[in-house]
Backbone:
């Protein structure tokens, strides 16, 4: 049975549980769970990370933790009762865990590893806290470490700053906002600007001495030396080294290191040095023999120096090696360190080349206690402490020291009867009064225990030695009196015995008889001579002797014998118990000398402060003793001395002695009667403040008033205790009189003099400290009234002394901080006067920092009191809030407005101060508003007498709120503060909105205030800190629990207020559309549901006012663009905006509401437009997030640009996106597209002088200037894109302008530029690009691509494989389709991405240039691939029964023509397909087209060879070989068998003319071949003669197979007219019977239109030609499977290429052509996922290389709009056969597409005109072309001619070069491919624009001929003409220019149906299409 748990409420999972049992809850280790019920070892509950899922889990998997339960029952909340630091650590580490993994993903390795270490460290510290065995101090230390690391991690990860109080997080609701701000500010400052430490310490560790000539023990002495003052500033650190230079006591590491403590910041400078003196202990001479002397002497060895400034940069120097120097003469040893510092190189040198002292140094910062905490290991080992000399900067009370420092300076000695100077050694002892030597009181330095005697080092043969050795004598005070120092002098012999002979001594007593100690300074001591055996143990014998030459102390009057020998020492006493000052001793012994009291009191001020504080208690006892005994005589002087001592304690050096005085007052002071004298003297001084001569003295008195009052109060208390409270009234009167004097003094106004104000300032600065003393004797209210009166008496003049005003405010501040103010009773009395002074200062904008601090303290106190539940406190708080609101709210708002409107100071310190002030005032305002209740708000609003006042107030507070919302108001990681501020703001706004509704609606409507309100609400909702979607789940949960979603609350308020506006809504339309739209773009469903219906309201009201809502539409669209560009909005919003489904909640959808209105049509249209715009904007934004420029970015921009022009007519936005597109093209180096793009803007401008404003990057200029600038830029881009023809047109346009302005200079430049472009056309190589059709299917594509097909212009050298890979890289999630059929609806609606890619063939528009003879290929290449609207793709299939013997009988071709919305190239590399046309070609028509193409190719090659345009005849050889060889082996015979048999003629009577045409072409081909062989014979090289002979032989076989004997008669009768001498069959020479109805369609197409697709060249070499014979027979006998795999072979091909269209094979889907020859490497590759061809066996029908003439055959024969070769002949069309094809996966779809296109099967072929070819077939000779392509690779090969790869001017027959562009098929992944390397080859090049040349004689033709535009942003229809843009057109000229040529025939129209008359086939007059932007776009 499940029982609700009582105590087991909260736990942590300690083992993972999968939850496999019924109702089991899956848990992971570390999850926290809340337990609801228990049953038999199982718990039921939920994980806190997902409280909605409840389940059961084993109880032994849970570790229970203590927790408290709130709201017991169904909605109970469990809070763990653990330390708040533990809770924070747990939640923080969980958040960090996720982010830490992301660091690894983002490759931020450094932070990843650092955070990992910190997390481990925090976990270790957490364990220590959880164990609970830490001491209180250690616990604080651990928590401090934890919080420091948590803050560091939060800062590194960009998380929020956590406000803490005593290491625990604070709840913002539990403290005042001012206190919260201070906590945040404190932590922020602590993070940003660490406070520099005032105390520093130097850690020194000795490692070793490295020197080659060691062998003796050493002493190393470290000290700090001030080179500026030439004195040591620290004690010495003394260390002994062994003979190897290592520390002598390795077992005592504490002796190896020392800490030099208490270095002030002033001592961290470059002239402070670490000096190291090294003394050796051994023989007198370093080179003496070992047995010379056994006595050890201390001898100088070396010195090293290091500046402390070297440590300041790094604070640490490990393993530092110092150079060791030795002085040149020993007499300079005492100053060797100074010489080294001063770099006096002549006085010292290195002790050895490799001598060095290895030390480790580290500079530590902070208080010594802090150092002890942070470096515990250092102190654990007992590091020695080396003090500074003397007292530290701050003397601490209780510090016990009694150190006498003696420096053994120097001596002057006589020779003593010797010929050489002595070797003097000094031995020092400390002797007590009884003559006993004191043991262990001579310290050589820290690190070494004190010794009983000291031996100086010995200087060799020196009678005036200088030692300068510092010693410390730590003698206890009790042994100090009577003790003396004795120094004995010995001569050290260097003889074998090494004796030390005593020859003299000196002594000095440490204390004189009167109790004074030895004075500080240098003392010259007398050297008393003595013998070696003199007994000095009896000190009484010599103590009576004089000891010093300078001073004769005591009663010793014995004459001193004149002696030249002297000994100097320097003494310095550092003692807290002994004094050297006689005046101090006299004062302390005042009772023994009563007559000296006055003098002693006067001299007290001259005594050093350190002496006074040492004897502070004794001195005070003395002063009050004198006052008690003789107050009349000495009262004033005692008072002055007391004031002097009190003020002495104000000094920072003695500041810490204040507690000593406090203790004295509390515990030792006994002057019960002193208060009377103190009050009297104090009042006397205050009453005389106007006397100038006393000002300085009075100032001192006023400084000391705090302690004077303490003495007065304590004295009165002692008196009351002693007397039982006598004279109480008298005392009160005295105090009242004193304070009356104070009030009078404070009320005085300084008139021109600052002395009085200075006294007032001094008094006020210390007056608040008196309050606590008065409270000891008076009631709280009495003291409050006294203070109120005193502060109230201050003058209110603000223009006086600024320093006084500041001090006055500081006094107010101290009052607020005092204990007196914390009492509610006294606070109510003091608050008015405090607020009064604050108001005055705020009004004058003075002392704002102090004002802010005072207000902060006031609100902190109010919050603390309001938290208490005591009724009277709550009541007092409400009253105080009332007072503050009435007094300060208005001035507070004005102050915030004032300080935020000021410019921020430049200095960093000033800026911080400025931010502090602003933040403090803001927190004060927020505190006040949060404390205000309904009653306060109501009273506030009622207090305004007029609506104007209320209006001003509301405007003011709304403005302030807008300022508070600014991002820069608080640092970015202060989210806690921002949320609190927002909570206060929204609460206040809800109160104030009622006032807005009540007072400013209807007739009192005020637009400004309502606008301010809405503006505030909008920016409130848009704040970054309120966008919960960006927060982590845990942070979001906390915010929602504490505050809810404040955006929704404000959104509901906006909606409510909007509904209240009524007809006044019109004032805000369209101004509020943008702001409201911005709100709705926030991804918060509730907020959107509330706000979107407002747009319906706006549309409705605008419709009522204007009859339309154009304003709403315009504003909505403008704002939508800018907002979505900023990253706002999402797909959900678009769906919501357009959704018909009612939104949840009470609000119907926007569209639903609109559909109910009368204006629903325009409304629905607007919604649809906005939705489409959002689709494009979302796509644009998503694309722009990508790094590189790709097709998606460009396509998306084009889509958006077109939308702005065609649908929205937004010219400015249109121009902006033109330039964005232009920049993208430049970045991608699409220079041609960039030029076309900029041309769009150029078209909008005219050649006028209209001034244009500054826009984008254009300066302010005239329209003419901007158009000129654009023209030049466009020409430059056309030049870079090798589209020189277009550049020429623009050069002419701008040249005309220069000419009209007579600007011949620029005209000349322009003509030269034009000429250079002509040169580039003729001289430079251009590559022809390939074109690819791409279908984007599936709902996962962006809107501008979704379920659409495009044709894309490839990059230079880009083949199908590379293009496929590029597309798959751009769409990495796309699936490549394996067929070319149109996809079905399931693919369209799939939630995926499908790509369908295959190559297509361009159909050039300008046939005239391509068919004219004599035009170089360099010129023709431009027209082949530019201005292309139509592209073709062929698919072969079999219809009817297939003949296995001759498959050509049933082989049909399905030809698909794609018509684009714009021509390529244009403003993009790809354009959408606007229309598809599908026609079918019969087998006979296919054969005719193949023969026509081959004949044309032969003519061209022969012509080029005749005119010597070909440098290499290999193309002609290969072409002849291919045709003759194939014909001999049965190629043409297949056609004869298929179409010339009686059965076919009878069954197809309608094909009579076509059969005749086919026969005519065969005969024509034979004639051409005969002439070609004749030409070939003249130019064939000798090595190719056998091949030529073979060709001649095979030609006769071919003629016999055709039934032809000779052509001579025919030729003679009807000579062939070849423009270049090539033979051509005359049409009239062959009898043809054709009906007019049999008109033949001859499309005007260039050979370029018909691609070569197959990849194996079977006829590129003669050796390959014979191989085709077997292929022909082999394939012709193939089974039905051949048709499933490949189209059938032909028996009537004129070459080794197939007689079907070249696209028959290539266009087949790979699925239908699945060839076993496909290489393995492509079978599973990604490229294979796109449509790819298969390698096929070569045959006569399936050749790899395809001749250009063959390509020509595959034109748009079925295109009903194509013009005929003879316009007088009608063209009967056939209906399309919709029989499902084996090539289609969806026959129904294919049928649908075919029927929709309405295209017809090609009509019969008309007869060929006499003498010349049809204009469509008129092919001129071609100039040399660029390089061809390799048969095996996609790269460009070398240009050297070869039999395989020919690079000459002719049309290459069978060059096996790689070509994907003319494959017209699905892929070009097979190994070999072919295309022409002649002018008709697909050369990948940048597009160019042709400019037609117009002549007068050609005008009639010109009217019907239009060159397609190089660009267009309009959708194109089939019936519309294609005008040349104004920018690229030129007016008619008298003389037509030579180039670029004018196209004689424009883009062909489609044929009408078969019933049309012949006139219907003629071109009709073309009508220019309308343009959406009519202004200035010229049309030709």
Residues:
């Amino acid at each position: 049975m499940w029982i609700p748990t009582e105590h087991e409420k909260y736990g942590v999972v300690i083992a993972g549980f999968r939850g496999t049992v019924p109702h089991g809850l899956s848990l992971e280790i570390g999850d926290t769970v809340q337990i609801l019920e228990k049953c038999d070892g199982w718990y039921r509950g939920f994980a806190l990370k997902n409280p909605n899922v409840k389940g059961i889990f084993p109880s032994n998997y849970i570790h229970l933790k203590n927790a408290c339960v709130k709201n017991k029952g169904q909605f109970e909340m469990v809070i763990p009762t653990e330390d708040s630091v533990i809770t924070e650590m747990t939640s923080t580490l969980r958040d960090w865990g996720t982010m830490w993994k992301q660091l690894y993903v983002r490759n931020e390795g450094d932070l990843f590893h650092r955070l990992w270490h910190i997390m481990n460290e925090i976990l270790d510290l957490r364990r220590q806290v959880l164990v609970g065995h830490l001491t209180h101090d250690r616990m604080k230390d651990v928590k401090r470490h934890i919080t420091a690391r948590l803050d560091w991690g939060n800062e590194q990860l960009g998380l929020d700053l956590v406000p803490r109080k005593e290491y625990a997080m604070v709840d913002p609701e539990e403290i005042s906002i001012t206190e919260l701000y201070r906590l945040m500010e404190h932590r922020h400052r602590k993070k940003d600007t660490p406070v520099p430490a005032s105390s520093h310490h130097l850690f020194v560790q000795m490692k070793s001495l490295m020197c080659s000539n060691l062998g003796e023990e050493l002493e190393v002495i470290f000290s700090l030396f001030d080179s500026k003052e030439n004195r040591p500033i620290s004690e010495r650190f003394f260390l002994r080294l062994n003979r190897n230079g290592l520390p002598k006591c390795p077992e005592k590491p504490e002796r190896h290191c020392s800490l030099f403590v208490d270095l002030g910041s002033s001592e961290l400078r470059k002239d402070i040095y670490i000096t190291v003196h090294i003394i050796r202990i051994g023989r007198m001479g370093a080179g003496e023999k070992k047995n010379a002397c056994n006595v050890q002497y201390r001898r100088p060895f070396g010195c090293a120096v290091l500046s402390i400034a070297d440590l300041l940069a790094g604070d640490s120097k490990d393993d530092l090696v110092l150079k060791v120097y030795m002085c040149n003469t020993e007499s300079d040893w005492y100053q060797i360190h100074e010489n080294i510092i001063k770099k006096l190189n002549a006085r010292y040198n290195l002790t050895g080349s490799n001598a060095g002292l290895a030390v480790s140094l580290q500079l530590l910062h902070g208080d010594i206690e802090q150092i002890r905490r942070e470096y515990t290991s250092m102190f654990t080992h007992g590091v020695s402490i080396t003090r500074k000399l003397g007292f530290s900067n701050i003397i601490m009370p209780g510090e016990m020291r009694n150190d006498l420092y003696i420096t053994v300076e120097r001596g002057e000695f006589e020779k003593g009867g010797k010929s050489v100077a002595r070797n003097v050694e000094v031995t020092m002892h400390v002797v007590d009064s009884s003559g006993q030597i004191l043991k262990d009181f001579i310290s050589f330095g820290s690190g070494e225990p004190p010794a009983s005697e000291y031996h100086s080092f010995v200087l060799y043969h020196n009678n005036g030695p200088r030692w300068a050795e510092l010693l410390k004598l730590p003698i206890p005070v009790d042994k100090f009196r009577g003790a003396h120092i004795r120094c004995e002098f010995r001569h050290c012999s260097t003889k074998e015995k090494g004796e030390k002979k005593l020859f003299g001594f000196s002594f000095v007593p440490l204390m004189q008889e009167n109790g004074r100690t030895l004075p500080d300074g240098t003392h010259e001591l007398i050297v008393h001579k003595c013998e070696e055996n003199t007994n000095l143990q009896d000190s009484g014998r010599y103590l009576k002797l004089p000891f010093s030459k300078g001073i004769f102390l005591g009663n010793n009057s014995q004459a001193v014998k004149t002696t030249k020998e002297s000994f100097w020492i320097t003494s310095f006493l550092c003692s807290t118990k002994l004094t050297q000052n006689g005046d101090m001793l006299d004062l302390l012994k005042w009772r023994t000398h009563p007559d000296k009291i006055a003098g002693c009191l006067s001299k007290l001020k001259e005594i050093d402060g350190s002496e006074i504080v040492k004897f502070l208690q004794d001195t005070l006892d003395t002063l009050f003793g004198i006052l008690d005994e003789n107050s009349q005589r000495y009262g004033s002087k005692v008072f002055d001395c007391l004031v002097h001592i009190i003020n002495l304690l104000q000094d920072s050096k003695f500041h810490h002695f204040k507690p000593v005085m406090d203790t004295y007052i509390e515990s030792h002071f006994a002057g019960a009667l002193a208060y009377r004298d103190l009050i009297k003297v104090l009042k006397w001084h205050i009453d005389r403040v106007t006397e100038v001569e006393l000002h300085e003295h009075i100032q001192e008195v006023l400084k000391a008033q705090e302690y004077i009052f303490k003495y007065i109060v304590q004295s009165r208390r002692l008196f009351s205790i002693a007397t039982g409270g006598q004279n109480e009234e008298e005392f009160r009167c005295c105090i009242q009189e004193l304070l009356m004097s104070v009030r009078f003094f404070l009320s005085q106004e300084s008139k021109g003099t600052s002395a009085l104000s200075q006294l007032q300032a001094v008094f006020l600065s210390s007056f608040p400290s008196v309050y606590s003393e008065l409270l000891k004797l008076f009631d709280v209210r009495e003291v409050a009234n006294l203070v109120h009166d005193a502060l109230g008496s201050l003058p209110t003049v603000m223009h006086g002394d600024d320093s006084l005003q500041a001090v006055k405010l500081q006094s107010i501040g101290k009052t607020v901080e005092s204990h007196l103010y914390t009492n509610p009773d006294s606070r109510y009395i003091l608050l008015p006067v405090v607020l009064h002074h604050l108001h005055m200062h705020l009004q004058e904008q003075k002392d704002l920092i102090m004002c802010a601090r005072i207000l902060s303290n006031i609100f902190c106190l109010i919050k603390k009191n309001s938290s208490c539940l005591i009724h009277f406190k709550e009541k007092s708080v409400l009253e105080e809030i009332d007072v503050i609101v009435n007094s300060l709210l208005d001035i507070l708002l004005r102050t915030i407005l004032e300080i935020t409107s000021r410019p921020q100071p430049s200095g960093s310190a000033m800026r911080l101060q400025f931010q502090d002030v602003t933040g403090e005032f803001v927190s004060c305002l927020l505190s006040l508003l949060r404390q205000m209740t309904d009653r306060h708000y109501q009273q506030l609003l009622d207090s305004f007498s007029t609506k104007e006042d209320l209006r001003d107030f509301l405007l003011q507070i709304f403005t302030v709120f807008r300022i508070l919302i600014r991002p820069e108001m608080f640092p970015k990681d202060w989210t806690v503060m921002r949320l609190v501020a927002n909570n206060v703001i929204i609460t206040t706004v809800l109160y104030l909105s009622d006032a807005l509704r009540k007072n400013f609606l209807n007739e009192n409507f005020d637009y400004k205030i309502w606008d301010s309100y809405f503006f505030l609400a909008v920016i409130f909702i848009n704040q970054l800190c309120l966008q919960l979607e960006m927060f982590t789940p845990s942070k979001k949960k906390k915010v929602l629990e504490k505050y809810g979603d404040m955006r929704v609350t404000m959104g509901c308020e906006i909606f409510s207020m909007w509904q209240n506006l009524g007809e006044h809504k019109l004032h805000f339309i369209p101004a509020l559309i943008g702001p409201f739209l911005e709100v709705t773009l926030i991804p918060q469903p509730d907020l959107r549901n509330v706000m979107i219906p407002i747009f319906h309201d706006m549309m409705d009201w605008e419709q009522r006012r204007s009859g339309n809502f154009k304003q709403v539409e315009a504003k909505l669209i403008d704002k939508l663009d800018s907002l979505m560009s900023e990253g706002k909005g999402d797909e959900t919003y678009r769906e919501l905006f357009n959704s018909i489904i009612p939104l949840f909640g009470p609000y119907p959808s926007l569209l639903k509401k609109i559909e109910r209105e009368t204006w629903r049509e325009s409304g629905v249209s607007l919604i649809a437009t906005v939705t489409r715009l959002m689709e494009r904007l979302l796509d644009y934004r998503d694309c722009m997030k990508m790094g590189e420029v790709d097709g998606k970015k460009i396509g998306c921009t084009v889509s958006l640009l077109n939308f702005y022009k065609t649908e929205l007519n937004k010219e400015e936005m249109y121009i902006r996106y033109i330039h964005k597109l232009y920049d993208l093209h430049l970045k991608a180096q699409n220079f041609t597209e960039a030029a076309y793009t900029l041309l769009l803007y150029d078209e909008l401008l005219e050649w006028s002088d209209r001034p244009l404003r500054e826009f984008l990057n254009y300066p302010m200029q005239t329209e003419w200037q901007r158009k000129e600038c654009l023209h030049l830029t466009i020409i430059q881009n056309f030049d870079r894109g090798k589209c020189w023809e277009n550049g020429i047109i623009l050069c002419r346009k701008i040249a005309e302008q220069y000419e009209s302005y007579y600007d011949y200079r620029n005209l000349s430049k322009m003509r030269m530029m034009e000429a250079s472009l002509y040169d580039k056309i003729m001289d430079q190589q251009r590559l022809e690009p390939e074109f690819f059709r791409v279908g984007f299917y599936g709902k996962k594509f962006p809107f501008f691509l979704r379920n659409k097909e495009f044709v894309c212009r490839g990059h230079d050298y880009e083949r199908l494989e590379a293009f496929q890979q590029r597309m798959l890289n751009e769409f990495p999630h796309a699936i490549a389709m394996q067929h070319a059929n149109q996809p079905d609806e399931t693919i369209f609606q799939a939630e995926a991405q499908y790509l369908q890619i295959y190559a297509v063939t361009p159909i050039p528009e300008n046939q005239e240039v391509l068919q004219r003879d004599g035009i170089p290929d360099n010129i023709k290449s431009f027209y082949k691939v530019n201005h292309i609207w139509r592209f073709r793709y062929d698919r072969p299939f079999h219809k009817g029964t297939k003949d296995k013997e001759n498959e050509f009988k049933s082989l049909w071709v399905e030809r698909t023509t794609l018509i684009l919305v714009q021509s390529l190239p244009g403003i993009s590399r790809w354009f959408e397909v606007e229309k598809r046309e599908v026609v079918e070609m019969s087998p006979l028509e296919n054969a005719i087209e193949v023969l026509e193409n081959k004949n044309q190719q032969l003519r061209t090659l022969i012509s080029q060879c005749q005119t010597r345009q070909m440098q290499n005849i290999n193309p002609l050889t290969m072409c002849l070989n291919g045709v003759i060889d194939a014909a001999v082996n049965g190629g043409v015979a297949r056609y004869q068998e298929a179409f010339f048999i009686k059965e076919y003629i009878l069954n197809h009577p309608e094909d009579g003319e076509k059969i005749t045409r086919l026969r005519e072409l065969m005969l024509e081909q034979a004639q051409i071949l005969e002439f070609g062989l004749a030409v070939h014979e003249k130019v064939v090289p000798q090595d190719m003669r056998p091949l030529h002979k073979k060709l001649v032989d095979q030609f006769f076989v071919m003629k016999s197979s055709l039934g032809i004997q000779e052509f001579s008669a025919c030729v003679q009768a009807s000579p062939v007219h070849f423009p270049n001498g090539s033979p051509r069959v005359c049409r009239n020479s062959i009898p043809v019977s054709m009906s007019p109805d049999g008109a033949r369609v001859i499309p005007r197409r260039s050979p370029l239109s018909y691609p070569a697709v197959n990849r194996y060249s079977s006829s590129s070499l003669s050796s390959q030609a014979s191989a085709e014979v077997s292929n022909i027979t082999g394939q012709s006998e193939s089974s039905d499977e051949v048709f499933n795999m490949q189209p059938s072979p032909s028996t009537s091909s004129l070459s080794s290429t197939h007689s079907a269209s070249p696209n028959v094979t290539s266009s087949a889907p790979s699925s239908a052509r699945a060839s076993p020859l496909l290489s393995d490497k492509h079978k599973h590759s990604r490229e294979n996922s796109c449509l790819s061809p298969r390698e096929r066996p070569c045959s006569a029908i399936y050749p790899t290389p395809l001749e250009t003439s063959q390509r020509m055959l595959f034109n748009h024969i079925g295109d009903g709009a194509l013009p005929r070769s003879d316009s007088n002949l009608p063209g009967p069309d056939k209906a399309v056969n919709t029989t499902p094809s084996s090539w289609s996966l969806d026959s129904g779809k294919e049928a649908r597409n075919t029927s929709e296109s309405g295209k017809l099967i090609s009509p019969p072929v008309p007869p060929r005109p006499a003498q010349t070819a049809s204009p469509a077939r008129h092919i001129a000779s071609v100039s040399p072309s660029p390089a061809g392509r390799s048969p095996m690779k996609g790269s460009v090969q070398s240009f050297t001619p070869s039999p395989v790869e020919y690079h000459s001017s002719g049309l290459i027959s069978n060059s096996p070069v790689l070509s994907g562009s003319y494959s017209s098929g699905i892929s070009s992944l097979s190994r070999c491919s072919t295309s022409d390397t002649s002018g008709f080859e697909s050369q990948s090049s940048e597009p160019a624009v042709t400019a037609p040349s117009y002549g007068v004689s050609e005008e009639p033709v010109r009217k019907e001929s239009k060159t397609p535009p190089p660009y267009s942003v309009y959708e194109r229809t089939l019936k519309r003409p294609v005008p040349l843009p104004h920018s690229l057109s030129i007016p008619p000229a008298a003389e037509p220019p030579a180039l670029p040529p004018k196209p004689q025939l424009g883009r062909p129209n489609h044929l009408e149906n078969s019933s049309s008359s012949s006139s219907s086939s003629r071109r009709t007059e073309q009508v220019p299409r309308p343009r959406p932007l009519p202004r200035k776009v010229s049309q030709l």
User: Anything to note?
Assistant: The two ends are 93 Å apart (CA to CA). The first helix runs from residue 84 to 105. Confidence is low (pLDDT under 50) at residues 552-559, 1140-1147, 1606-1980.
